[in-house]
Amino acid sequence: MSGHKAQKPETITAQALGWIDAETHAVAPVVHASSTYLRDVDNQYRTGRAYARADNPAYDQPEAVLAALEKGEAAMLFASGMAAATAVFQALAPGDHVVAPKVMYWGFRHWLIDFARNWGLEIDFVDMCDLALLKQAVRPGKTRLVWLETPANPLWDIVDIAAAAEVTHAAGARLAVDSTVATPVFTRPIEFGADLVMHSATKYLNGHSDLVAGALVTRAKDEHWERIAGVRARIGGILGSFEAWLLLRGMRTLFPRVRMAAANAQTLAHQLAANPHVSRVLYPGLPEFPGHAIAARQMKGGFGGMMSIRVKGGERAAIATAAQVGIWKRATSLGGVESLIEHRASVEGADTPCPPDLLRLSVGIEDAGDLLADLETALAIAHG
Ligand SMILES: *Cc1c(COP(=O)(O)O)cnc(C)c1O
C-alpha cells in the first residue's frame, strides 16, 4: 500500500494499488458478501463495521483506487451512476439553488426536472459552454452547487472546468463534474478545481457492459461529503459486493481499453467527416469542433471514445443506417469494449437538445477498419 501517491495511474489501476490479502496472500481480492458483523463481547464494534448498508469491505479497494486515480481524499461506490448523482443533490436542503447544464445525460436532466424541483431545489439550466451565462446564473450565498458534464452527452459539448470552478467558488458554491465520458485516463476534474467527481461506473470504469454501478470522488471529506455518505447509508442505494468485485476487475484494464477506444474514435472521426452521407461529425478531437481548444488543454492524451454523427437525409436515414450495421450493436449505454450505435432522439424525448438526424457512437476496441467498413456500408445502403 505504501508509496502509491508516487505511482503513475497506469500502475495504480493495473495492480489495483497492489493490495495483497493479509490472510491468504491472494493477489486478487476475496468477495466480501457478509451483510452483518460480529459485535465485541463488551458491546463495541471495534472494526467500525456493523451492517453492510452503511459500509462494506468490498468497497475498500475499488474506492481507494478511484480516490488515488482522481487525486481525491475519498471515494464512494453506489448502486448506479444515477444513485451517485442524485445523492449529491439529496444531500442539499430544500430551498437551495443549483445550476445544471442544458446539455447533459438525459436521465439525470429528467430527474432534476421531475423530482429535484418537486423536492424543493431551485434549478437553473444554462449553456455551460458560455461562462458569462454561468456567471449570471449563480447567486452568491444562495447557490450551493454547480453541476457540469464534459464531454456532455450526446453533443459532446466541452466545458472549461477550471473557469467554471472559478465562477462557482466565487459564488461560494461547490462544483461537481460528471466525468463518465472523459474518464480519469484523460481528465481529472479535481486538478482543475472541481470539488466532486461523478462516474457512471457502468461505462468505462467497468468497461465490459456487465454491471450497473456509480461512483463519487471528493476533493475533501467535508460536511457535504458526510451528508452524502448518510444518504447512501440511509436511502440505501448501495452496490452489491459481487458488483464491487467485478468493477475492480474491470478497472484494472482501464488505461489500455480507454486509450484504444479513443484512438479508434479519432480515426473514425476523421474518416466519417469525409463521408458523403454524413453532414457533421461531433467529436472533441476534431480541430474544427467548437470545444476542441479547451479539450486539448483539459483532456490529456486523447479525446475519449464517444462521438456522434449527423446523417444526411434526416431522422429516417439515421434510423435506416442504424438498421444496417452488423459489427456495431444497436443498443443504449456506452464505454464497453464493444462498439454501440444509437438513435438518441428516440430515447431522449421531446425536450431534448439532440437533433433527430443524430446517431451516437460508443467506439469500442475492435479493429478500426472493421468498424469503419461496417458503418460506411450501412450509410451507403441507407442512402441507396
Ligand atoms: C449512463 C450515464 C449516467 C447514468 O449512470 P447509470 O449507471 O446508468 O445510472 C450518468 N451520466 C452519464 C454521462 C452517463 O453516460
Main sheet record = 7 strands, mixed
Number of domains: 2
Helix segment tally: 14
Termini separation (Å)? Answer: 59 Å
Q: Which small molecules are bound?
A: pyridoxal-5'-phosphate
Top-tier CATH class of the largest domain: Alpha Beta
> How do the strands of the widest beta sheet line up side by side?
1-7-6-5-4-2-3
CATH architecture of the largest domain: 3-Layer(aba) Sandwich
What is the assigned CATH homologous superfamily of the largest domain?
Type I PLP-dependent aspartate aminotransferase-like (Major domain)
Give the tally of β-strands.
12
CATH topology of the largest domain: Aspartate Aminotransferase, domain 2
Question: Over the alpha carbons, how many angstroms does the gyration radius reach?
Answer: 21 Å
How is this structure best summarized?
Helices cover 38% and strands 15% of the residues. It has 384 residues and is α/β, with parallel strands linked by helices.
Keywords:
single chain; 384 residues; alpha/beta; Aspartate Aminotransferase, domain 2; Aspartate Aminotransferase, domain 1; 7-stranded mixed β-sheet; 5-stranded mixed β-sheet; 38% helix; 15% strand; globular; binds pyridoxal-5'-phosphate
If you had to describe this structure to a student in words, what would you say it looks like?
The protein is an alpha/beta fold and 384 residues long. It folds into two domains: 243 residues, Type I PLP-dependent aspartate aminotransferase-like (Major domain) (Aspartate Aminotransferase, domain 2), CATH 3.40.640.10; 128 residues, Alpha-Beta Complex (Aspartate Aminotransferase, domain 1). The chain has a seven-stranded mixed beta sheet, sandwiched between helices. A five-stranded mixed beta sheet has the order 8-9-12-11-10. Strand 4, helix 6 and strand 5 form a beta-alpha-beta unit. The protein is globular and about 80 Å long. The mean pLDDT is 96. Pyridoxal-5'-phosphate (PLP) binds next to helix 3 and helix 4.
